[in-house]
Design a protein that fits this description.
9 strands; three-stranded antiparallel sheet; 2 domains; 193 residues; elongated
C-alpha cells in the first residue's frame, strides 16, 4: 500500500471541479550562516508555495520547512538593468539576523533548469503585503487586456520603440482621463453631507 504524500495540502475548487494541489519544495540555494553558539553552518534555502524557508533535517530523515519572514524587497542597479532582492529575518537560533536572496536566475540555475521566478515570489501568499497588492492585480490585467484588444492583429500601431512608447503613454493618459471624468461625475451626484 502506498502512503499519502505529506506535501498534498489544499484542495482547490475550479470550474472543472475539485483538484488536489501539491505544494512543491524546491531547493533555491545554499547559504552560510552563523548560529548563536558561534558555529558556522550551511543552510538549505527552499521555496514552497512561493515563500522562502529553511529546510531543517529531522531525526526521521524528513525535511521540515521553516518559513522565513520577508523584511523588504529591494531593487539594485546592475550593469545593464535592475535586479530585485529580498531580505529575510532569520530564526532566533542564528546570530546572522538577516539574509539577502536574489530573485533572478543565474547561468548555473538555468543549466540545472531552475526558474526562480516560478518558485520564489517577491511577495508570496501569506505575506502581510500580499492581500493589498493582489487586490490590484485584476485592474492591471484588465488594462493590459484592453491595450491588447486595441491592437490590430496584435501588432503595434507604430514602428520604433520611441513611437510605441508614445502610443502607450497616450493610451495610459486616455485611461486616466476617463477614470477622472467618471470619478468627478460620481462626486457631483453624491449628496452633500
Amino acid at each position: 500500500m502506498s502512503r499519502a504524500s505529506p506535501r498534498k495540502e489544499t484542495t482547490l475548487a475550479g470550474a472543472r471541479g475539485a483538484a488536489e494541489r501539491i505544494e512543491r519544495e524546491r531547493l533555491i540555494e545554499l547559504k552560510r550562516a552563523r548560529r548563536d553558539d558561534g558555529e558556522e553552518v550551511t543552510i538549505r534555502l527552499l521555496a514552497k508555495n512561493g515563500a522562502l524557508g529553511i529546510g531543517v533535517l529531522q531525526d526521521d530523515g524528513e525535511t521540515r520547512f521553516v518559513p522565513l519572514k520577508r523584511i523588504r524587497t529591494q531593487r539594485q542597479k546592475d550593469k545593464a538593468a535592475y535586479r530585485f532582492y529580498n531580505q529575510y529575518e532569520m530564526p532566533k537560533e542564528y546570530a546572522t539576523r538577516e539574509i539577502t536572496v536574489r530573485l533572478h536566475n543565474s547561468a548555473e540555475e538555468e543549466a540545472r533548469r531552475l526558474n526562480r521566478a516560478e518558485n520564489l515570489r517577491a511577495i508570496p501568499p501569506g505575506d502581510p503585503d500580499f492581500g493589498r497588492l493582489y487586490a490590484r492585480r485584476a485592474d492591471a490585467e484588465s488594462l493590459n487586456r484592453n491595450l491588447e484588444d486595441s491592437l490590430y492583429l496584435k501588432k503595434a500601431h507604430s514602428l520604433g520603440h520611441l513611437r510605441q512608447e508614445a502610443d502607450l503613454l497616450g493610451f495610459a493618459q486616455l485611461v486616466n482621463s476617463i477614470t477622472l471624468a467618471r470619478h468627478r461625475a460620481r462626486e457631483r451626484l453624491r449628496p452633500a453631507a
